Amino acid sequence: MAEPTNLQELLQSNKKIFDETIMDFLPRFSDNKEIQSLYEMMRDYPSRGGKGLRGTICLLWCQLFGGTKSRALLTSSALELFQNWILIHDDIEDGSEMRRGLPALHRKYGVELAINAGDALHGKMWELLLRNIDDLGSDLSLAILSEFAVMLDHTTEGQQMELSWNYTNKWDISEKDYLSMVTKKSAWYTCITPCRLGLHLSVARSNSGEKSFSDILSQIVDFGTHLGIAFQIVDDVLNLVADESKYGKEILGDLYEGKRTLMIVHLLQSMEPAKKERVLKDLSKPRSLKTATEMNAIFQLMKDSGSILYAREVASKHSSQAMKLFDELVTKYPVDKTAFLETRSLFQYLTQRDY
Amino acid sequence: MAEPTNLQELLQSNKKIFDETIMDFLPRFSDNKEIQSLYEMMRDYPSRGGKGLRGTICLLWCQLFGGTKSRALLTSSALELFQNWILIHDDIEDGSEMRRGLPALHRKYGVELAINAGDALHGKMWELLLRNIDDLGSDLSLAILSEFAVMLDHTTEGQQMELSWNYTNKWDISEKDYLSMVTKKSAWYTCITPCRLGLHLSVARSNSGEKSFSDILSQIVDFGTHLGIAFQIVDDVLNLVADESKYGKEILGDLYEGKRTLMIVHLLQSMEPAKKERVLKDLSKPRSLKTATEMNAIFQLMKDSGSILYAREVASKHSSQAMKLFDELVTKYPVDKTAFLETRSLFQYLTQRDY
């Protein structure tokens, strides 16, 4: 199995290629001062680092089923662009202060310009995907565009669920509701769609029949859902316990933002009514009125009530289920051995990382 | 020439078809309460009326060069969807209160949910365009997607120019700057791209050679720029002088929003420094601090200084130039007579309407 070091090297080298592709593609210079400033905004998040997880998953799945890395390069880079434009809007919607260790885009330029820059970058994502035509032909390019449309449907639906809970100050959320939100908001764009795109880009459609190709596509939805859920829970746990210098976001930021996480769902369900009311009062305050003392107290309650441990267990259960389904899937097909080991190693990292 | 009544009938009957196409296409029901609410938000602006101008231009240009209306239906409806999602974001960015006679979407649901609903609707625009494949084949469908990408580039660049002027409180804007902003922000999506799309959808590519086809595409940019400029100036004048019940937006709303219009540019250039400083002080106030007395006083100054008359003259000049170029263009090709008359009548309406 690939060592963690090799995985980090793989991620870094892929990330470098995505960055080059994106930075070459995005507009850079304009004679007009304002438009020049838009270009700088569009290039801001893509230049901030990040791990290149989603693009790498797409590349690996292309290789897994016999495709080459180069075939999947534009599509993988477009996945990274998706992540970048949607984070610009997410950060506004969630009232986030920081992104990848720097002020969120709307904190630098204001909400109005940041919404527009997100839209401009969103457009560029589709434009980059249209460049697939020369290498991949029209039909495959169009199939890829359709996958992006489906991904965006799920992501915005998940975001709506989460934002609505915030907007209506709803806290009585079941674990089922939470998992449904996370599947839509995270699993699709982090796991399911990247794998499905990689499969489209591989030679699987010509090598396997139509039937088994569409079988694999739907199996990806199954295991990708479990994987994405595990990924998001781990991400939310890290928001509480990670090393801030590595993590790049504000620690306990989710509590300040009033984000509904599995830990919060568990904590509230395990509390007696009077104490719960007090916690809800603090959680429901606008961000600016929340104090560090209050947020740390809630964090302490989570630890005391075993909510963090519980969340880690749920993540672990979904992670195991994902790996089991993944292993079952790949044993049925003559997959590329190296890509298999790298994918497995990446999937394990997704759910076991510490930053 | 087609009578105005016929034009209104044409617009209304087209609008009805676009609405049906869009409403059939957009998701309607979800078991999940929050997602159901997203669907209602996505269907809100498209259900509010509007004129269907951009979709109609696209239909007419398809017919003008020998295509059928049905070929252009999805694309025309996608243009209307573009208008709808970008207005959701525009209304947030401009701080608009009203849209088509009702509260703006973010006034009903909050900024966070409205940004996300705009993104969801934006995704649906591309998804609708992907449905072109069955009827139009891959190559033409992809050419249409590219036109949309270019349109979005221009529109977001124009929006950035306008928002930046607002954000930096810049008022020393030349007429050239203003025209450049309006070309990007309005002319592309209102005139240039709808005409170009119609041409793509017609039979012109097969009937004319590649050379003359691309000649027409670039001539559309020329006359569409003039037409779009005239359209936007007229729209801005109407914001000052229209009948509010017909217009559907707040009268003098542009003054409250601090919008840089040709009338403002002209007024500021024609004022002596001391008086100008006073006007700038009022114009620069945040919306909530502006009073009706102050805004009416600025409106009066515009009338006194001939700024509105001047703007009408500039609009008229661009309108005439657009019609001249349009007439020159169509006389070179064997265009459909009925579509020609309807298009001409529509173009005249765009720049001579009173609501």
Keywords:
17 helices, homodimer, 1% strand, two-stranded antiparallel ribbon, globular, mainly alpha, 355 residues
In short:
Two copies of one chain form a homodimer. With 355 residues, chain A is mainly alpha-helical.
Describe the secondary structure blueprint for this structure.
The structure is a homodimer of 355-residue chains.
Chain A lengths: L3 H22 L7 H12 L8 H12 L8 H22 L3 E2 L2 E2 L1 H5 L1 H20 L2 H35 L7 H27 L2 H4 L2 H32 L2 H4 L5 H5 L4 H8 L3 H12 L7 H13 L2 H25 L5 H16 L3
Antiparallel strand pairs in A: 1-2
Helix pairs in contact in A: 1-4, 2-6, 3-4, 3-8, 3-17, 4-6, 4-7, 4-8, 7-8, 8-10, 10-16, 10-17, 13-16, 16-17
Description:
The structure is a homodimer of 355-residue chains. In chain A, strands 1-2 form a two-stranded antiparallel ribbon. Chain A is globular. Chain A has helices spanning 4-25, 33-44, 53-64, 73-94, 105-109, 111-130, 133-167, 175-201, 204-207, 210-241, 244-247, 253-257, 262-269, 273-284, 292-304, 307-331, 337-352, and strands at 98-99, 102-103. Chain A is 77% helix and 1% strand. The longest helix of chain A has 35 residues, at 133-167. Chain A has 355 residues and is mainly α. The interface between A and B is large, with 50 and 50 residues.
